[in-house]
C-alpha cells in the first residue's frame, strides 16, 4: 500500500473534522496551562485550509502539503501557526512532485516536518511540547519500517507511540512555550500541542485504514 | 458571558471598523491582512515602527498608532499573535527606505510570527531590526522558561522610541534606544478577577471571591502566588518589592512610574494604588519624575493592575516628553 495524493487530501479533511470536534477540548487543555486559544486557532486555520484543497486536488503531494503549510502560517497565529505551518511546508518540500509515498518516503517526510518544528521553535524533546508526541512517533515509524513492517502496521505503531508521548507530557515540567511560565504548576496537565499532534497522526491512520 | 458583542468571531473586525472611523484623522485600517497604519505613512526619512500582538489589550497597540509613536500595529485574534502576512504588509506600508523596527513582546507565538515576517521583509529588500520586550519580573527563572513576558515596558518603549524615530534617529539608534528602555524597565501585575475570552465564553481561570493572583500575565496566565485579598497598601508592596530588587532600583534613582489598569479596574483605584506606590518609592529615596496612570495594556475585563518602573536618564526623559498624537496618548502637539 502507498499513500496517494487522494489520501493526503482526505487526511487534511479528516484533521479538519477532528479539530472541529475536539476544538473545545483543545482549548480547555490550553486554558489550564496556556492562553485558551489552541482549539479555536487550529479550527480557524484548517477551516480555511479545506477551502483551498479543491484548487490543489489534482496536484502532487508536495504542492498539497505546501498549500496547507502556507495557509496555516497565514491564518492560525499564536505559536501553533508557525510551528504546524513550518511542519507542513517542510513535509511538502520533502514530497515535491510525488503522487505516491511508500512507508520509506513517509519516514523522510515526517522527519523533515519534525526538524522544521524543532528549528522554528528552538525546542527539543522533554520540554512539554508537540515535539514530545511527534518525536516518539517518528522514532516508532522508522523502527517499525526498519523491522520490515508494512505501511499500516508501521503507522499503527507510530500512532501508539504518539499517544504514549502525548500522555507522557502530563507529568512533565514545561520549559518552552507559554506553559513554561507556570513552572511547577505546569505539571499534571497534558500539553495541548502534543494533543493536536496526536489527533493529526490518528487522522492519517484513520484515512489509510478506511481505504484498505 | 455578558459582553457588548455581536458574535465572537466578529469582535476584532468590528472594533477595527469603529477605530477607523473614530480616528480617521490619525490612522487608516487595512483589512485582510489586518493592520492599522498612520494615515500619513510612509513618513519620508523616518524609521518605521511596527508592533502587534493579540487583541484584547486595547488601547495597546492600535491606540498607539500616530505621530510620535507607532507607524503601524498588527492586531491578532483575541490573545493570539497576528500572522506574518499582517506584519509583512504593515512593514511594507511604513517602509520609507530607512529601515523598520519590529517591537515584539516576548511570547512564543509573537516572536515566531514576527521572525517569519522579518525573514519575508528582508527577502523583499527591507531592512528590519527587532527588539523583544521582557520586563515581567513575575516569571522567576528565565533559564527554564520561554523567558520573561513582555508587558508594561512595551507601552513606554513605543512612546520613547517613537519620539526618537520622529526626531530622525536611524535604525541602529532606534534599536539601541529600544533595548535601553527594556533594560531599564521592570513590571509586575495582579488580578482580582479573571477575563473572559469572547470565543471561550467563560472565565479563563477561577479565582474565588476573596482571593487574588499576584504576578498575573496579560492573557490571564497564572502568576507567582494566589493569596487572600488584602489592603491596597499590602498589594502595592507585593508588586513593588520584586520590581525594585530585580533591576535593582536604588536610592537617588529617578523613575517613570506607570500604574496600569487591567481593563476592569476603575481609575479611582489606580490613583489610590499610585499613591501607595509613591509612598513606597519615597520611603526608599526614589523620585518619581514622570508618571502614567490609566488602562493602557489591558486584559479584556480583568480587574487588577500592574506596576511598571522605568529608570530614567536625560535621554529617556527627553523622548518620553516629546510630542505624541495617537488615539490613546497625546501631549505636546
TrEMBL record, chain A:
Pfam families for the chain: Dak2 (PF02734)
Keyword 4Fe-4S: no
GO CC field: cytosol
Source species, domain of life: Bacteria
Domain DhaL: 6-206
Record's keyword annotation contains 4Fe-4S: no
Matching InterPro entries: DhaK_L_YcgS, DhaL_dom, DhaL_dom_sf, Dihydroxyacetone_Kinase
GO biological process, one term: glycerol catabolic process
SMART domains (alphabetical): Dak2
GO MF annotations in UniProt: glycerone kinase activity
Record's keyword terms, sorted: Kinase, Transferase
Record's protein name: Dihydroxyacetone kinase subunit L
Automatic annotation (TrEMBL), chain B:
Catalytic activity: dihydroxyacetone + phosphoenolpyruvate = dihydroxyacetone phosphate + pyruvate
Name this protein carries in UniProt: phosphoenolpyruvate--glycerone phosphotransferase
Top-rank taxon, per record: Bacteria
GO CC list: cytosol
Pathway: Polyol metabolism; glycerol degradation
Entry GO MF terms: glycerone kinase activity; phosphoenolpyruvate-glycerone phosphotransferase activity
A family per Pfam: Dak1
Enzyme Commission designation: 2.7.1.121
Subunit structure: Homodimer. The dihydroxyacetone kinase complex is composed of a homodimer of DhaM, a homodimer of DhaK and the subunit DhaL.
Domain DhaK: start-end pairs: 7-331
NCBIfam families, alphabetized: dhaK1 (TIGR02363)
Amino acid at each position: 500500500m502507498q499513500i496517494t495524493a487522494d489520501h493526503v487530501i482526505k487526511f487534511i479533511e479528516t484533521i479538519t473534522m477532528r479539530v472541529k470536534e475536539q476544538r473545545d477540548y483543545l482549548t480547555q487543555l490550553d486554558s489550564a496551562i496556556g492562553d485558551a486559544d489552541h482549539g479555536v486557532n487550529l479550527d480557524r486555520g484548517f477551516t480555511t485550509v479545506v477551502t483551498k484543497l479543491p484548487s490543489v486536488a489534482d496536484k502532487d503531494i508536495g504542492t498539497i502539503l505546501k498549500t496547507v503549510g502556507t495557509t496555516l502560517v497565514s491564518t492560525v497565529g499564536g505559536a501553533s501557526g508557525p510551528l504546524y505551518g513550518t511542519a507542513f511546508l517542510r513535509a511538502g518540500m520533502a514530497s515535491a512532485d510525488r503522487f505516491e509515498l511508500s512507508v520509506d518516503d513517509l519516514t523522510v517526510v515526517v522527519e523533515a516536518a519534525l526538524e522544521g518544528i524543532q528549528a522554528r521553535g528552538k525546542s527539543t524533546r522533554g520540554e512539554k511540547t508537540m515535539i514530545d508526541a511527534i518525536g516518539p512517533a517518528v522514532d516508532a515509524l522508522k523502527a517499525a519500517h526498519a523491522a520490515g513492517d508494512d505501511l499500516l502496521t508501521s503507522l499503527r505503531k507510530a500512532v501508539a507511540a504518539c499517544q504514549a508521548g502525548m500522555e507522557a507530557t502530563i507529568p512533565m515540567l514545561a520549559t518552552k512555550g507559554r506553559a513554561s511560565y507556570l513552572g511547577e504548576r505546569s505539571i499534571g496537565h497534558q500539553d495541548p500541542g502534543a494533543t493536536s499532534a496526536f489527533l493529526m497522526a490518528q487522522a492519517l491512520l484513520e484515512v489509510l485504514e478506511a481505504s484498505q | 458571558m455578558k459582553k457588548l458583542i455581536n458574535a465572537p468571531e466578529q469582535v476584532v473586525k468590528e472594533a477595527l471598523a469603529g477605530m477607523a472611523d473614530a480616528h480617521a484623522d490619525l490612522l487608516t485600517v487595512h483589512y485582510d491582512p489586518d493592520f492599522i497604519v498612520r494615515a500619513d505613512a510612509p513618513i519620508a526619512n523616518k524609521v518605521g515602527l511596527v508592533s502587534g500582538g493579540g487583541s484584547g489589550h486595547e488601547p495597546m497597540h492600535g491606540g498607539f498608532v500616530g505621530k510620535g509613536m507607532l507607524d503601524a500595529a498588527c492586531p491578532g485574534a483575541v490573545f493570539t499573535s497576528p500572522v506574518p502576512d499582517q506584519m509583512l504588509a504593515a512593514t511594507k506600508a511604513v517602509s520609507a527606505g530607512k529601515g523598520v523596527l519590529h517591537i515584539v513582546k516576548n511570547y512564543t507565538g509573537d516572536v515566531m510570527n514576527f521572525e517569519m515576517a522579518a525573514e519575508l521583509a528582508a527577502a523583499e529588500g527591507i531592512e528590519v531590526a527587532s527588539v523583544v520586550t521582557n520586563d515581567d519580573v513575575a516569571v522567576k527563572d528565565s533559564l527554564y522558561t520561554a523567558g520573561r513576558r513582555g508587558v508594561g515596558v512595551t507601552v513606554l518603549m513605543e512612546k520613547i522610541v517613537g519620539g526618537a524615530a520622529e526626531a530622525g534617529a536611524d535604525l541602529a539608534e532606534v534599536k539601541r534606544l529600544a533595548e535601553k528602555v527594556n533594560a531599564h524597565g521592570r513590571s509586575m501585575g495582579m488580578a482580582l478577577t479573571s477575563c473572559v475570552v469572547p470565543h471561550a465564553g467563560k472565565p479563563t481561570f477561577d479565582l474565588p471571591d476573596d482571593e487574588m493572583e499576584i504576578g498575573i500575565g496579560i492573557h490571564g496566565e497564572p502568576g507567582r502566588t494566589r493569596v487572600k485579598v488584602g489592603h491596597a497598601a499590602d498589594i502595592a508592596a507585593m508588586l513593588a518589592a520584586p520590581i525594585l530588587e530585580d533591576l535593582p532600583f536604588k536610592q537617588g534613582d529617578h523613575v517613570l512610574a506607570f500604574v496600569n489598569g487591567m481593563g476592569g479596574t476603575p481609575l479611582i483605584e489606580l490613583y489610590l494604588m499610585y499613591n501607595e506606590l509613591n509612598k513606597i518609592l519615597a520611603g526608599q529615596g526614589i523620585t518619581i519624575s514622570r508618571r502614567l496612570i490609566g488602562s493602557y495594556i489591558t486584559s479584556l475585563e480583568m480587574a487588577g493592575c500592574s506596576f511598571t518602573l522605568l529608570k530614567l536618564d536625560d535621554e529617556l526623559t527627553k523622548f518620553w516628553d516629546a510630542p505624541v498624537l495617537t488615539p490613546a496618548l497625546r501631549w505636546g502637539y
